[in-house]
Design a protein that fits this description.
By secondary structure, the protein is of the alpha+beta class. Helix content is 23%, strand content 26%. The longest helix is centred in the C-terminal third of the chain and has 19 residues. It binds uridine-diphosphate-2(N-acetylglucosaminyl) butyric acid.
């Protein structure tokens, strides 16, 4: 059996920025076996590949010549459940938020801080998604991949995925070389709420939830995200466009001397995370636009498509923001999404 190859496919509806681009060839894969069919295909097999999940962490700046492999592998199931933990497996094409909701509905807690993050389960390890005090790396057990050259399947334990701050081996050595087909998540028991993040703490206090349930934490996270982050279905965006820079104590102190109000957080290893949102706002970019690309009002770390922006418009705004921040603070912000 062969896979239907779609040609000249518009990608506007397949990326949350909602920018125009065309895929010369696109194939939809619904299983690891489908991926092997792509690898063995006489025409597609050797061509460069571009893996597309929910399109929520990338920016198309031109048409795509590589074969777009759209991952639509479904299925969520419990593999193990004992006194110590629950092991969940999700197909890479499942929506991430769908996985979070499914686990909570089944009575398995532990992913609630990662509610409402756009994108697919398979994309989650690529940038090690994180929010409100929890990162995927805190829950990821293993990742199934299929190699684009050999067609072989392998299971990578989380420790081999080199998960870092919005970073992994899939953004580096394995970029374009393999496709994630499934992920496994281990949810530890007993469940303990992760409520250290100031926004979450404040929301729970305001609602008199001193001993919150998993659902209460889920509700808190959903409410906070809704109040701060634009919904991609109404305003195109890819979440945070920049990473928060991590600097050593000396650099942080130098910046602090000139900018005593800067928001920064000490990390365990003695370095500091600087709030990029604060720096962007300090440069006067909050709510501003360059053409049809804009800096979000509530969360300046998010760049938005105000309607009809192209990928290059958004990239031009990103560069202007990076230049301002560099001029004022001496640091170059690093983009978070994959730019194609
Ligand atoms: N801030 C300002 N001015 C503003 C907005 C925010 O100074 O106009 C300051 C806030 O005071 C706050 C700090 O910036 O102290 C950080 O803001 P926030 O807690 O909203 O989170 P963030 O650091 O901007 C990160 C992640 C988000 C994640 C949130 C919550 C990155 C690049 N982004 O944003 O992830 O949801 O924390 O944990 O690490 C994403 O990756 O796409 C994403 C949205």
């Amino acid at each position: 059996m062969s896979l239907p190859i779609e040609t000249d496919v518009p990608l506007r509806g397949l990326n949350t920025f909602g920018v125009d681009a065309t895929a010369r060839r696109l194939v939809r894969v619904r299983s690891a076996r489908d991926v092997r069919l792509v690898v063995d295909h006489p025409e597609l097999g050797r061509a460069p590949k571009c893996v597309l999940g929910g399109g929520s962490n990338l920016l198309f700046t031109h048409d795509v010549d590589a074969v777009v492999v759209k991952v639509e592998i479904a299925g969520i199931r419990v593999l193990e459940d004992d006194a110590h933990s629950t092991l969940i497996e999700a197909g890479a094409g499942e929506s991430w938020h769908g996985v979070v909701e499914w686990t909570l509905d089944q009575g398995y807690a532990g992913l609630e801080n990662l509610a409402r993050i756009p994108g697919t389960a398979g994309a989650a390890p690529v940038q090690n998604i994180g929010a409100y005090g929890l990162e995927l790396s805190d829950r990821l057990e293993s990742v199934d991949v299929v190699d684009f050259v050999t067609g072989r399947s392998a299971t990578l334990p989380a420790a081999h995925c080199r998960l870092g701050y919005r970073d992994s081996v899939f953004k580096r050595e394995l970029a374009g070389k393999s496709v994630i087909t499934a992920i496994r998540l281990r949810l530890p028991k007993p469940w303990t709420p992760v409520t250290g993040y100031a926004d979450v703490q404040r929301w729970l206090q305001r609602h008199n939830l001193n001993d919150p349930s998993p659902k209460a934490v889920f509700d808190a996270v959903c409410a906070i995200r809704q109040s701060k982050l634009p919904d991609p279905s109404t305003l195109g965006n890819a979440g945070s466009f920049f990473k928060n820079p991590v600097v050593n104590r000396t650099i942080r102190n130098e910046i602090l001397e000139e900018h005593p109000d800067i928001v920064s957080y000490p990390l365990e290893d003695g370095t500091y995370k600087l709030a990029a949102a604060w720096m962007i706002a300090a440069c006067g970019w909050k709510g501003q636009s360059l053409g049809r690309a804009g800096v979000h009002e509530q969360q300046p770390l998010v760049l938005v498509n105000r309607g009809g922006a192209s990928g290059t418009d958004i990239l031009a705004l990103a560069k202007a923001v990076q230049d301002s921040v560099q001029q004022k603070f001496g640091l170059r912000l690093e983009p978070e999404p994959v730019i194609l």
